[in-house]
Amino acid sequence: MPKIRTSRTAPPPEGFEDIEDILEDYNRAMRDAENEDGEGKRKAESLWGIMRISHTRSRYIYDLYYKREAISRELYDWLCKQGYADANLIAKWKRTGYEKLCCVRCIQARDMGHAGSTCICRVPKSQMQKGQIVECTHCGCRGCSSAD
């Protein structure tokens, strides 16, 4: 969640006004996801909506800076510092093989049930059994391997 701007917070750099409406839409969607009733869902499943919105917002900022070159480095750094984008996830997207990564937790071997492995969503669909539907327990991803 982005930090709340106060009088002590540095003002946003030039160009923020152009994307402020879209980021506000993401904030509204995030608040809705946070307030959503988790009735009938598994414990981890209640966080999936929040993870997806965070991923989408970070991907939007990544595309603006790295793909379309529509924002300045100063604005990009400010957005990361203020919590609008996940800088660790974006750093992974720049590496080969991680272009479609859903969350950083899916590549951490210590969080997985088997030592030295990654999340099931990182396995290419071509290596899965035919008709098998896979869902990450951490974020609900159905496959973020770049080999797909």
UniProtKB/TrEMBL annotation:
Keywords: Nucleus. InterPro entries: BUD31, BUD31/G10-rel_CS. GO terms for cellular component: spliceosomal complex. The keyword Nucleus applies. It is found in: Nucleus. GO terms for biological process: mRNA splicing, via spliceosome. The keyword Zinc does not apply. Pfam families: BUD31 (PF01125). Belongs to the BUD31 (G10) family. This is Bud site selection-related protein. It comes from Tilletiopsis washingtonensis.
